Write a sequence for this structure.
């Protein structure tokens, strides 16, 4: 009776020897040792045998199963090795074929620069304060010491709305008044904020001028804020933004809402100050307008200018991006051309 | 404003290089935008950079001051003469020239005094006088009609002074002329182009700039003389001034010159006017311009005889007042103007003479026959002048200065110096005295400045003495009393406030400017730190941006302007939509399609998508930003923020392995992305319901809810909208969400995580055949409810219709995951709950198990 088992064993070994691939081996495994395999069936058949034959049959069947399992293991390793060798030898691909392209997302360059500004100013304790786009003439001009018909209004061409006295903000400076009134607790608390936001000017849209642009205004108000602080703080910003060795220059200037006022230039980082097309051969790039907060503005914000002082500055993120990436056309920023955006 | 250094040097000693001075002025707030050179080389100054200039430099050895001692006839040509030029050499140089203004001296014998002219030797570089377009040439020896020639007497054009090429430039000897002097030293000049901010009205003249230079370099200022040689009878009674409203005309002065002769101005005066951008006209008009530029006080000259004629024998009486409705005036350049009440007019008994401070009238202007000149120097309210220039659309040198503000004290100085210069260059006799109506002299401004205040604002410790010294350089009168300065503002500036704190700030700015901003040290703020405040909306928004970028979307930022017509395209069939609500509308839009502020971000997203479609089949973008909604009860609109998304094109970018992955993006791509986003922000109770948004495909769009609130809409763009925006046939998926509401509903900060299970999961699949109209979400709900706590997860993996599923039915297949952390599930437990799920599906959904 055991001959049947032995014959099965011999057939299995022969079939194993004939299995030349992983697939064939898997089929062999299933045919002989699987749940419905021949050996498994033989083992199950033990129960149906006469009592006296059961022990020998069962023992041998188990032995055969173990032997075949071991043989399968050896065979499997041999095949794996052979297949690996085969793959290593002839499985080469053309690595110069293009890779599968991914579609990454990304942030707008203005957002990136705004964040960089916010991060650096944040390190110096300036927190973001956002303010509205559509403003009253009072907030945009009068509270900022631009009386009606003042020539300084010519510096900024406004968009007027059909509601009298309501305009689109021409700068983020009205946010100074709103921040002072909102955070100043009636002129009793110091303030250190930056005010990022979109501003609007009535201009023709050309490569050099746009009807809307971002500004980041900064404002520090306290009982002991001095012009030296303004210089030092902005210089620190410039070094963080443009490099440790960035040189900064201060020019007297005029803004109705600051006094003394100054323009801040940084040495051109494209030519190291030796003069190039971008800096118009001056060696300097204008980065910010700034000054000590005008007493009238402090007063309009709720502070007593005899006790409180402050500084303010304003800069343009689009201009920074243009300088950094050699962009010559400001219209790129709101054109949403993917060929532009995908470069960031 | 153009400022020739030669003119500036009349008023102040400049002993520094022009480039250094330009830099110093720039740092002090008088921004030198450009330096123009006339014949002299550009200087190189250590530490100062200016754009390189490629102007013509007059060679110091070859372009000289020449004295023409004799003019001889050319033996072979009538149109040429031989000028015998003394250029400081041993012999006279014979120079062949066609200069027409020498013909009159031909064969007149030796000239004494000689004619002085610019003279250029062989090898000198000059402009080509005969070329229409600017062209340089180098002088070479050549014969002219048989006479050898190696030099040239020069025209203005050849030197680059002007376009004048009729004859050569003849110069007037001021007593210092020596033959052979390099021309650079005679005519060479440097002209600054200075941009003045509105606070620097006082610098809108050569004298104004000279004042700054004097203060910056600490040099004395030479104020131009206002002494008049008045030999005529007094002006008293010759004319009368009546000022109706002193607030708009604080001062009016007049001087009178009789028996003068109108003719060309001397060359130097013409040259100065040209250097500041003016065209010389005649000696009378030129002087009015000269004084305008020199002192900043605009003048106006009347033909006195014309005034007398208009007065019909009476004493001419000039009245100044506001224009009345209906009044008109024809101004010098021939325009008839309708006047408004902010316009200030001068009028006499015969009518309106001029627009005060802006432009004169045609009837009383100076002409070639004028002999008697009545000269006006007045002062006007800047606001009126400004409004007149704006409403009349006329910009004049006088108006520009008055609109910025001229101190009324300058009027008397201007009228005196003007009448004297007219006398010198036109002859005649000046009437003694001036008429001076000065009803509203400004109060003297005095500011008290404690030294501590300088320290408080500037952060620099000044001694009272040092601060006083700087202010005195700016012509302030300063008394020092202990630790405070009592400063009186000089009679030429209007920019220092009499109000204490503002006046102090004004003075501190002056101190800082003259001291030099670059000398003020840097410090870091050591003031008290303000309380922290958080803008949570911004933090949310930034997180959202990052998430969207991570999910593969590009950020757009668009113009926030739109038009109702564009936004109406978002709604087919004239239904109400974005465009039906009131807009924030602009009075002065740059273009009709930018005349309102947007109600939606979609218009621009679709416009950009259509534009990008030319080079990108696949686009996935988002924008975050305000829309503008007017409020009935408030002046200012609401500015709520929106989030909009757009996806179109292929799920994967096509590659060389074929289109396996290149299926079109559809609704479920958008939904998957938004679900991921809402899940990341832990928005509770998210439900997608079939949507009702006019811009979207009615069958392939949804409203997104969070519990009872609608967050926004998402779906495939309505084909008619896609067509209206020139988008192609591929589905365009868009969504617009109310950002504030989304962020209010979200919780990205603190939310519980699921603990990691210790027990193995059991996976089972189930395929249900259901009626086609049963929504997948309902099926999921039933299965979940029936599965209870043991059904840990469930995922739809197949939707199938067609044989063998009966018509009107579909098969939905789910992966089910059974798991509980309490214990390892047994087969029986799993079988039990699985049966329960099947029964629930059968009874509640009419489902059958798919075989
Ligand atoms: Zn450069």
């Amino acid at each position: 009776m055991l001959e049947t088992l032995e014959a099965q064993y011999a057939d299995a070994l022969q079939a194993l020897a004939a299995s030349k691939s992983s697939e064939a081996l898997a089929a062999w495994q299933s045919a002989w040792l699987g749940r419905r395999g021949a050996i498994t069936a033989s083992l199950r058949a033990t129960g149906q045998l006469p009592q006296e034959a059961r022990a020998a049959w069962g023992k041998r069947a188990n032995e055969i199963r173990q032997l075949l399992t071991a043989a399968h293991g050896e065979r499997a390793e041999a095949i794996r090795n052979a297949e690996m060798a085969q793959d290593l030898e002839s499985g080469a691909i053309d690595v110069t074929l293009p890779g599968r392209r991914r579609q990454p997302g990304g942030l707008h360059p203005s957002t990136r620069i705004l964040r960089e500004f916010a991060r650096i100013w944040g390190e110096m304790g300036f927190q973001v304060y956002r303010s509205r786009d559509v403003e009253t003439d009072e907030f945009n001009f009068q509270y900022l010491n631009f009386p009606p018909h003042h020539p300084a209004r010519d510096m900024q061409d406004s968009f007027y709305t059909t509601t009298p006295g309501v305009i689109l903000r021409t700068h983020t400076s009205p946010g100074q008044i709103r921040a002072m009134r909102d955070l100043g607790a009636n002129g009793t608390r110091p303030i250190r904020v930056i005010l990022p936001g979109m501003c609007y000017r009535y201009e023709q849209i050309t490569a050099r001028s746009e009807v809307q642009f971002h500004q980041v205004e900064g404002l520090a108000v306290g009982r002991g804020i001095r012009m030296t602080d303004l210089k030092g703080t902005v210089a620190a910003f410039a070094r963080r933004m443009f490099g440790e060795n960035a040189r900064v220059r201060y020019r007297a200037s005029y803004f109705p809402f600051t006094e003394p006022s100054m323009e801040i230039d940084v040495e051109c980082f494209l030519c190291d100050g030796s003069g190039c097309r971008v800096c118009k051969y001056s060696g300097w790039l204008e980065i910010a307008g700034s000054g000590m907060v005008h007493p009238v503005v402090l007063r309009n914000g709720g502070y007593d200018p005899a006790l409180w002082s402050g500084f303010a500055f304003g800069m343009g993120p689009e201009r920074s991006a243009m300088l950094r990436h050699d962009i010559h056309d400001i219209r790129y920023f709101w054109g949403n051309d993917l060929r532009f955006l995908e470069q960031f | 404003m153009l400022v020739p250094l030669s003119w500036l040097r009349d008023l102040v000693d400049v002993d520094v290089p022009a480039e250094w001075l330009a830099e110093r002025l720039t740092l002090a707030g008088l921004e030198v935008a450009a330096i123009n050179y006339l014949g002299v080389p550009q200087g190189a100054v250590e530490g100062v950079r200016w754009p390189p200039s490629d102007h013509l430099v007059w060679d110091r050895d070859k372009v000289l001051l020449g004295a023409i001692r004799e003019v001889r006839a050319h033996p072979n040509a009538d149109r040429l003469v031989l000028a015998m030029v003394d250029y400081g050499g041993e012999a006279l140089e014979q120079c062949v020239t066609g200069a027409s203004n020498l013909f009159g001296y031909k064969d007149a014998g030796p000239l004494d005094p000689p004619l002085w002219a610019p003279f250029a030797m062989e090898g000198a570089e000059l402009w080509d006088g005969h070329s229409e377009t600017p062209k340089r040439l180098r002088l070479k020896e050549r014969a002219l009609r048989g006479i050898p020639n190696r030099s040239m007497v020069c025209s203005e054009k050849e030197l680059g002074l002007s376009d004048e090429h009729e004859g050569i430039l003849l110069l007037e000897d001021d007593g210092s002329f020596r033959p052979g002097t390099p021309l650079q030293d005679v005519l060479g000049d440097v002209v600054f182009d200075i941009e003045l901010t509105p606070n620097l009205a006082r610098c809108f003249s050569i004298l104004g700039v000279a004042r700054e230079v004097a203060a910056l370099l600490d040099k004395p200022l030479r104020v131009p003389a206002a002494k008049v040689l008045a030999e005529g009878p007094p002006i008293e009674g010759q004319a009368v001034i009546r000022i109706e409203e002193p607030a708009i005309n604080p001062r009016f002065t007049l001087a009178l010159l009789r028996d003068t002769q109108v003719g060309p101005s001397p060359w130097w005066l013409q040259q100065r006017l040209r250097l500041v951008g003016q065209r010389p006209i005649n000696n009378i008009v030129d002087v009015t311009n000269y004084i305008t530029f020199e002192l900043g006080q605009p003048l106006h000259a009347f033909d006195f005889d014309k005034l007398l004629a208009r007065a019909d024998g009476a004493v001419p009486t000039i009245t100044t007042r506001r224009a009345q409705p209906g009044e008109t005036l024809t101004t010098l350049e021939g325009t008839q103007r309708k006047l408004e009440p902010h316009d200030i007019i001068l009028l006499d008994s015969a009518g309106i003479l001029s627009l005060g401070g802006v432009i004169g009238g045609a009837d009383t202007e100076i002409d070639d026959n004028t002999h008697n000149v009545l000269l006006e120097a007045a002062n006007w309210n800047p606001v009126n002048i400004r409004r007149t220039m704006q409403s009349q659309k006329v910009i004049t040198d006088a108006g520009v200065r008055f609109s910025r503000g001229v101190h009324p004290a300058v009027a008397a100085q201007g009228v005196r110096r003007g009448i004297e210069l007219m006398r010198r260059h036109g002859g005649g006799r000046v009437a003694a005295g001036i008429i001076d109506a000065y009803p509203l002299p400004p109060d003297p401004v005095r500011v008290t400045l404690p030294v501590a205040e300088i320290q408080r604002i500037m952060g620099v410790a000044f001694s009272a003495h040092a601060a006083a010294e700087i202010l005195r350089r700016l012509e302030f009168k300063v008394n020092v009393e202990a630790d405070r300065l009592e400063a009186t503002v000089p009679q030429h500036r209007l920019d220092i406030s009499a109000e204490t704190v503002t006046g102090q700030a004004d003075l501190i700015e002056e101190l800082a400017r003259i001291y030099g901003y670059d000398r003020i040290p840097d410090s870091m703020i050591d003031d008290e730190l303000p309380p922290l405040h958080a803008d949570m909306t911004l933090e949310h928004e930034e997180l959202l941006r990052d998430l969207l970028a991570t999910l593969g979307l590009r950020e757009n930022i668009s113009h926030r302007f739109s038009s109702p017509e564009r936004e109406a395209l978002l709604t087919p069939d004239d239904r109400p939509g974005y465009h039906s609500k009131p807009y924030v509308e602009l009075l002065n839009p740059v273009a009709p399609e930018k005349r309102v502020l947007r109600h939606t971000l979609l218009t621009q997203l679709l416009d950009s998508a259509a534009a990008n479609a030319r080079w990108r089949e696949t686009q996935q973008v988002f924008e975050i930003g305000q829309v503008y909604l007017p409020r009935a009860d408030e002046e200012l609109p609401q500015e709520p923020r929106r989030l909009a998304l757009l996806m179109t094109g292929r799920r994967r970018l096509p590659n060389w392995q074929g289109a396996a992955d290149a299926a079109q993006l559809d609704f479920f791509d958008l939904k998957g992305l938004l679900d991921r986003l809402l899940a990341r922000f832990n928005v509770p109770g998210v439900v997608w319901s079939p949507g009702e948004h006019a811009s979207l495909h009615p069958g392939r769009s949804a409203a997104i809810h969070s519990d009872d609130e609608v967050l926004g809409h998402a779906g495939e763009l309505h084909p008619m909208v896609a067509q209206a925006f020139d988008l192609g046939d591929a589905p365009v998926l868009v969504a617009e969400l109310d950002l504030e509401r989304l962020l209010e509903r979200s919780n990205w900060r603190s939310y519980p995580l699921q603990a990691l299970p210790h027990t193995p999961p059991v996976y089972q699949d189930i395929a249900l055949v259901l009626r086609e109209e049963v929504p997948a979400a309902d099926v999921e709900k039933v299965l979940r409810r029936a599965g209870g706590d043991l059904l840990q997860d469930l995922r739809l993996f197949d939707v199938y219709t067609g044989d063998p599923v009966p018509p009107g039915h579909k098969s939905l297949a789910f992966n089910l995951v059974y798991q509980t952390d309490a214990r390892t599930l047994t087969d029986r437990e799993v079988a039990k709950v699985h049966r329960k799920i099947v029964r629930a599906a059968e009874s509640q959904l009419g489902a059958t198990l798919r075989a």
User: Anything to note?
Assistant: The pocket of zinc ion is lined by residues A 268, 270-271, 275-276, 278-279 (CB under 6 Å). Residues 2-90 of chain A form one domain.
